[in-house]
Amino acid sequence: MGTSSDQQKGNNIFQSRKRYNILKNSETKVIQYLCSIMPSWITSDILTIIGFAGSVTVALGMFMAKSDKLWLLLSILGFAIQWFGDSLDGRLAYYRNTPRKWYGWAIDISVDWISIIIIGFGVYDYFYQQEFVALIFVCMYGWSMINALLRYKITDQYVIDSNAMGPTELRIIICIFILGEYLESGTLWYFALLGSILLVIFNIKDLLDIIKAGHTRDEEEKAAKALQK
Question: Are 127 and 50 in contact (CB under 8 A)?
């Protein structure tokens, strides 16, 4: 049986954001367990560096895979490392009740964007004759980040999931297709193309929802000002 203190720490882990992804419950339990066994010398900043190193590893695997597809397996390992660092850096701070909300948020957004650019270069290099797919994918991912920031500004809710899909589900799907690419060339290209199309659809839907929320907030603020007069 866990103590009330442990339970409170577990409740604190995701208090800064709402999650809607399919693996939410399972992922929460895993992250809570990992936070509970993390050595004291491991800090959130160290975990951010580990996550960033995972992104570099993904790109390195893509670069090297042009000469030998076996290197694609390194990219899968890179995504696992990235998940570990990226998923635990902020959560560990909340678990230890030492969050730096705005510092962490700024670092998280910046590192995420730099990471997707680095991974994008790796994919771009791998698709050396069809680079436009990698370019579109990176642009659409960047758009999804902008949507998340807009939603946070308008609704005060920081949401990193798109419908039932979150970063973890996306990493798993990408890894499946990377494995498919290792077994059959061309698999990853079709995924990148399909993924880009889906991101366009999801981004447009999210943007329309955000604009609607913005209109609602404008009306609420107008009504509040009218009552004050």
Answer: no
